[in-house]
Design goal:
This is Cytochrome P450. Keywords: Antibiotic biosynthesis, Heme, Iron, Metal-binding, Monooxygenase, NADP, Oxidoreductase. The protein is built from 20 helices and ten strands. By secondary structure, the chain is of the alpha+beta class. The longest helix has 28 residues.
Length: 408
Amino acid sequence: MTDQPVPASELYTDEFAANPYPSFARLRADAPVCPVSSPRFDQYLITRYDDARAALVDPRLSKDLYGPEQYYLKIFGPNSEALNRNMLNADPPEHTRLRRMISQAFAPRRIEALRPRVAQIVDDLLDKIVPRGESDLMRDFAIPLPMIVISELLGIPPADHDRVLDWTQVIRTSGSSRRSPQEERAAVQEAQLRLHHYLAGLVAAKREQPADDIVSALIDACDQEGKLSEAELVTTTFLLLFAGHQTTADFLGNAVVALLTHPDQLDLLRDRPELLPSAVEELLRFDGPLPVASPRIATEDLEYQGRRIPAGSLVGVVINAANHDPGHFVDPDRLDLRRVRGPHLGFGYGVHYCLGVSLARMEARIGIGALLRRLPGLRLGVPVDELRRLPAASPFRGLLELPVTFTA
């Protein structure tokens, strides 16, 4: 097991962005808990399934980035507190309080009632794509689908969808442009400020004129019970907006690439659409959109796999490495849509388990099913190794573009 930090030059490369799984396999085998020096911050990576699952519920690994050490500054930057101080970056009892308030909006009955609307959005998007015979599926489908759904849930007016999407995409694609690092940071900070200003205005507007949406419901709960501060209303809205579309969009892109590069599994799913629920789980395990869980902080000296993690260290649980652990999954690097559903970590584990899991599954099942029905002969428009991806240092695994062709 290596005692030296793994340098960024060994992991955060174009080759790693295209296919990180060989690197994850080496880490699992040779250094399952190891320090890594990344372009953004240094941390310890945990890569084996059992260790990852244990770390996700370890109370000694705190999610509170806003304590005296102010870890958020090195992770998110100086403008982050206005947007990111939310339940994702909080521990119980703060996390428990915030999650209880929000979970009511994602009750299974409420999400199931959205099914006809989600199907309509999918069909509306595909109606524009089908006649063309080609598409950038990220731009035309994978990104707008979850963005429209979560925007409508939050109560963002349709006239504002495009500009809100533009700001979130500046944040999502940070590091992928040809701008200098200084220009990139400035662009992200500007997008954060504009998004914060907009969401604060949205909360104020909903307070004056409430409607049947999540933001109005949160305001009502705040006013009636005093359980959310004004700042928490804004940061919670941001969390729901960003988490509600980012990972789903990236997952849809990754899933399409996985299917198109495994034609036997693509044919299987076309022939047996009843496999869609299990297929979504396998596609998420195979190439999930959040390779490393959001950072945790060791509140005391820890030991995993005989490796000491000093107090104050940042720790990253590598979900995509754990989901390819041969000690837990048979032949894990093989895409098998008939795989007996196992407890993958794609939606997390423990108290921070994905709150929007029911909505994400619904969007994925409806979206992928419709793509396969309505785009016959679907294939990549460029060789797979020419696909443009988010940079390797991004916290997300996804595509910048997904060119495809099909029979119009």
